Amino acid sequence: MHFSDLRPELLRALTALGYEEPTPIQEAAIPVLLRGGDVVGRAATGTGKTAAFALPILERLADGPRGTAPVALVLVPTRELALQVNEALTSYGRELGARVLAVYGGAPIGKQWRTLETGVDVVVATPGRALDHLRRGSLVLDELQTVVLDEADEMFERGFAEDIEAILEATPSTRQTVLFSATMPPRIDGMIRRHLRDPERIEIAAPAVVAGEAPKVTQKAYVVRRSDRAAALARILELESPVATLVFCRTRIDVDDLTEQLNSRGYRAEALHGGLGQEARDRVMGRLRAGTAELLIATDVAARGLDVDVLSHVVNAELPTSPEIYTHRIGRVGRAGRDGVAISLFDPRQHNQLQFIERITGNKISIEALPSVAQLRAAQFGRTLDEVRELLVAGGFDSVATGLDQLLDEHDPAKVAMAALHLATAKSGDRLGEDDIEDLAPRLLRRRTERPERGERPARFDRADRGDRGAGPGERGPRAERGPRPTSAGMTKLFVGAGHNIGLRPGDLVGAIAGEAGLRGSDVGGIDISDRFTLVEVPSDRADEVIAALRGTTIKGTKAVVRRERFAEPGAKKFGQGAPKKNRFNDSTTPSRFAKQPKWS
Ligand code: AMP
Q: Could you tell me the distance, in angstroms and rounded to a whole number, from the CA of residue 88 to the centre of ligand 1?
């Protein structure tokens, strides 16, 4: 499969985005989808799965005037993912005039309704809101050709299974169905059997490693936000002191950006991508070999066929889209019995993909804490002292004696030595900069230990960063069994007097809090929705503001009581022990004792 097989409008969009070739999942899925077949893809964020289903949908959009009802529906677990998929479809389909709409809970339904009425080609929706529109008649699925279930395991986890079933029932039986999921629990297999027709199953195979030929490579990973990549890389390189490094990026645009950022920090970095002619490539390679360049920033396509043996380090500025590509990349170092280091930077949302790469390649990739600037400066000072000691033994510095005599006449010898050391250690200060980078590793590792993995389920580190969260209706049982969650540090639990009785979903509450009190969605903590009330965690220093804001508004058209949760944790613990537990967290319709707020402790 080549991108040039696609219609020219799409090819131009992909070239402008700097994509050079399809990722493995795209290569496998796109031809099947273009033929009209169903696909089940085991793929996490970071594999290029969005384009894998988006491009075939856009490729088959009619040329002339298009109808009002959508031809494709993409169901996603969260508001954030809905927005991301919406953005991807919109940017790929701009020249085609693709009409894409994201619909999710927590946003005004009226505006979504009006856009649906004017005509939409692709709807990207969270299942709850899609069902809402379907029941109100604003979403018409009669013309649907394709349904995509993206991050199916995550949708099941959030209790959307029944909603998805109801939506699929309302679609034409002739539709094409695509399902992507990072894990394949049995419940998903059941849905696949019921709703997909002879699907092509796509899983990226394990790369073949010949015994005894595995390179000797130390593999490390650092969790940093994309925006902190250059600053983080500067610190890591300072720690590693590589001889020469090959840094891989996904797109040409990323290559250019990162090269520019590293150069502005004082690195000698060269960009290498498919857009460069042979002469320019040769020049860049010559500089790396001669040691006048220390970093080579490249796409996979550009690095193919490069024969460089000076490399000590390989860096994945972003995780590669498949384990196979990971293996190829790290095979660039550790050759001929030499040691090599492979470093991967990843966004917290790509933790699944990192675990998948580890599992498939059988490699251990250790997640490291980002070195602090203070640590690096201390290490650097230690190195300088060692160098001075070596030089004192080796000698050969008499040429500076004349100038030194003069200095020693003017100043105290100890002060002179200190000033010289200061100058020597300050030389790489610019490269480090004073960036305040948040190291996300401790958070990630803490979450992993707090929530041990069940079977294959990956740690849901990114959950709090997404829009819809907490238990969906389908999860009321398990939450009831576990009892209420303890309030997180720095957070205050609020009581909101509305729950499943008004069809409240986590996204509605996050939307109301973000919209009315100006918090970011990610500031809102755990949400437990019960029949008639909801408990939600907000940062303690914003609690009063949130209470005031929610009291002044309606949630899903309902004016609800909002106040601080009255029960302290010891009292709350009792929910998990005695009879009140039933009323609080299961579906019982008997009036809840909790609703009257008895004082239990
Ligand atoms: P996804 O797995 O769909 O979340 O995509 C991960 C990232 O890869 C997104 O930032 C995409 O823009 C990017 N991407 C998708 N396909 C390609 C490709 N063929 N080449 C380079 N980057 C890609």
A: 9
Residue 436 forms part of a structural domain: yes
Sheet of 491-496, strand order: 527-529, 534-539, 491-496, 562-564
| Range of lowest pLDDT (123-132, 178-187, 558-567) | 558-567
Q: How many domains does the chain have?
A: 3
Give the DSSP H or E segment for 25: helix 24-34
Half-sphere exposure of 380 (CA within 13 A, CB side): 24
Do the strands 217-223 and 366-367 form a parallel or antiparallel pair, or are they unpaired?
parallel
Q: Looking at ligand 1, which residue's alpha carbon is closest to its atom 18?
A: 19
Assess whether 384 and 501 both reside in one domain.
no
pLDDT in tens, 529-557: 887 888 888 888 888 889 988 888 888 87
Among candidate residues 70, 74, 79, the one with its CA nearest the CA of residue 52: 74
For residues 46 and 168, membership in a common domain is answered with yes
Taking the C-alpha atoms of residue 125 and residue 330, their distance in angstroms, rounded to an integer, is: 38
CATH number where 101 lies: 3.40.50.300
Q: What is the pTM of this model?
A: 0.61
Q: Are residues 375 and 307 in the same domain?
A: yes
Among 252, 458, 52, CA closest to 260: 252
Please work out whether the CB of residue 251 comes within 6 Å of at least one atom of ligand 1. yes
Q: Which residues partner with 528 through β-bridges?
A: 535
